[in-house]
Amino acid sequence: MSIEIAGVSKRFGDFVALDNVSVSIPSGRLTALLGPSGGGKSTLLRIIAGLERSDSGRVEIEGIDATDLPPQKRNVGFVFQHYAAFKHMSVRRNVAFGLQIRKRPKDEIAGRVDELLKLVHLEQFGDRLPAQLSGGQRQRMALARALAVQPTVLLLDEPFGALDAKVRKELRDWLRRLHDEVHVTTVFVTHDQEEALEVADEIVVINEGRIEQIGSPDDLYDRPANDFVMRFLGPVTQLGDQLVRPHDLQISTGAAGPDDVGGRVTRITRIGFEIRVEVATAAGQTVVVTLTRNEFLALGIDVDATVHLRITPGSPTTTAVTGQPAGLEEDLATTAQ
Q1: CATH 2.40.50.100 region(s) of the chain?
Q2: Is 21 helix (H, G, I), strand (E, B) or coil?
Q3: Are 205 and 213 in contact (CB under 8 A)?
Q4: Domain limits, CATH 3.40.50.300, in the chain
Q5: The CATH number of the domain covering residues in 236-336
């Protein structure tokens, strides 16, 4: 079901967590709230859940004004980063807890728990304690518990943040498949650009309490609204005054074209299937170009080679408006992940 957020603001003392935020989250979609730490995304999620009260503005869930409703009246499922499991209860009892609180019949509870444990591939672990599960299994248990009460909206606050990279990758693939099966309106918070781009139907980019851009992963990556979105969603480098993706730069050793920028290769680094070529231009910039192995071998270049750079026609660019040193933007994007 859709979520409508209109004019929501929230302050903690002098700190502005959200500044007049308005966004419509479509029904049945998987939406990511993406941004740097402290940008306001978790605060917005907690306001939707009723765990925080906004200073101003309105929240509607399924067409009902939920602004003043307590969490238990909003019919939302909430999954925390650190599971919040009942350590003394079995997996089965953890999943059943919300249904027991609502005093559902025992047969109904047993059937629903069996169904959910099968859905999250934990049916053989129902009698174990949470401490006997892996981190990924505990997070799947937390998702089953949130889904048990058949929520209108499922909210996840950095659900995979405490897990290692391999398990994160497996779980986000699983979350995407799970969402396609249950079709519940889902909102998840992440600061991981790859996670948002891979999993979400729609991304809301939040920075310093304000929304920078809303759109599909393709929209945001290919048509960034501004410098911040360009820098935050994926690697960037700078050529002249233009921010551009390193894989959208062409490098050549032939005659220079009218818009080409000349330079000298200063470093070549292989990272898996990618070759990163750093080029120092006459203007003092260090520009990063990403090539495939075959493209690099076809060029036949080495350190100290003289080359020419150009932006591939039609590639997304923005004008650099901040004072970041040239050539550091790709490192910043990687660090943000």
Answers
A1: 236-336
A2: strand
A3: yes
A4: 3-227
A5: 2.40.50.100
CA triplet 329, 333, 337: central angle to 5 degrees? 165
> Can you identify the CATH homologous superfamily of domain 3-227?
P-loop containing nucleotide triphosphate hydrolases (3.40.50.300)
CA distance linking residue 46 with residue 120, whole number of Å:
25
pTM equals 0.82
pLDDT in tens, 35-65: 998 999 999 999 999 999 999 999 999 889 9
What is the Cα–Cα distance from 294 to 273, expressed in whole angstroms?
Answer: 10
Task: For residue 303, give the nearest of 269, 275, 267, 252 by alpha carbon.
Answer: 267
Retrieve residue 50's tokens.
């009723």
Closest CA to 219 of 32, 17, 19: 32
CA distances to 83, 169, 304 from 98, rounded to whole Å, are 15, 29, 65
Look at residue 181 in the predicted model and tell me its pLDDT.
82
Question: Which pLDDT does position 325 carry in this prediction?
Answer: 40
Query: Considering just the CA atoms, what is the radius of gyration of the chain in Å?
Result: 24
Decide: residue 134, CB within 10 A, 0-12 exposed, 13-18 middle, 19+ buried.
Answer: exposed
pLDDT tens-digit map of 144-188: 888 888 888 989 988 777 667 777 787 788 888 888 888 889 999
The answer to whether the CB of 263 falls within 8 A of the CB of 281 is yes
Q: How far apart are CA 96 and CA 103, in angstroms?
A: 11
pLDDT tens readout for residues 86-139: 888 899 999 998 888 888 888 999 998 998 898 888 889 999 998 898 888 888
Ranges 30-34, 167-171, 210-214, 253-257: which has the least confidence: 167-171
Helices 135-148 and 91-101: angle between axes, nearest 10 degrees = 20
Q: Nearest CA to 302 among 275, 283, 322?
A: 275
